[in-house]
Amino acid sequence: MIKIAHESPKSIFEEVQRFTDYDYALVHLFEEDEEYLKQFQQAALKGREIILDNSIFELEEAFDADKFDSWVKYLKPTWYIVPDVLEDGYATIDKMEDWNNKGLGYKGSGKIGVVQGKTYDEIVDCYNYMNKEADVDMLAISFDYSYYTKSVPHANKYVSWMLGRVKLLGDLLRDGVINKDKKHHLLGCGLPQEFQFYKHSDYDWIYSLDTSNPVVHGIKGISYKDQGLWSKESQKLFELINSDITTDQLGLIKNNIQKFRWFTNGSYKLDNVL
Questions:
Q1: Measured between alpha carbons, how far is 103 from 100 in angstroms, rounded to an integer?
Q2: Alpha carbons 6 and 237: distance in angstroms, whole number
Q3: pLDDT, tens digit, for every residue of 202-218?
Q4: Domains along the chain?
Q5: Could you give the maximum distance between any two Cα atoms of the chain, in Å?
Q6: What contacts 208, CB < 8 A, 6 or more positions away?
């Protein structure tokens, strides 16, 4: 079973927690929003598993490493994602080396290294470094590498992203690159039906994923179909963090979460709430 987290507006944080396996925090919001920080402090006190992200997707560059280190030591999350560089495997390696050389991070938290790159060879080089030299506890692979649109060209870029990551993981498996003894995290989601491809035991090294996809689409009034979606709302969840959610929107969000869990694990975690 792949562990699932869905980022959500503060107003429904606890409601969404009921249907997720862990919590996913965006570090830049800690400095902007005291209420947001308190929600994750409370989650930690409850013993919830937490991944602290460096907010690169939201900011388009990773949060300052020294400040990120301070927040890691403050929150003491279960896991944290070391600052990386979008689409640049070698610059990401340099950031990881700098992080390790400075002795940053909290030893009680698991360290996640992100695999980056614009070509298959660069992605493999970055993966091998993270796996063999970086002393990380988990590796992360994102949903929207530009490489995907080249490896699986399609008129719909979201289909390219979906099938591109499926192909990448399959190629890494085929070429003996994947370390099946190490946990892996899938960052984000283009189309929710992607995750049905990973139900096979060949992919039991995938430990977790995070995405706000079912939440954002529910807020926008979009309900998942049985086959998933073929387009994606481009708005980022942090831009909706202060949204008040109506009863109708919450119903759509729960419906989407239900279908997302079915795509991913073939099971629900909603009991009688719908």
A1: 5
A2: 10
A3: 999 999 999 999 999 99
A4: 3-261 (3.20.20.105)
A5: 50
A6: 2, 3, 4, 5, 21, 22, 51, 183, 185, 186
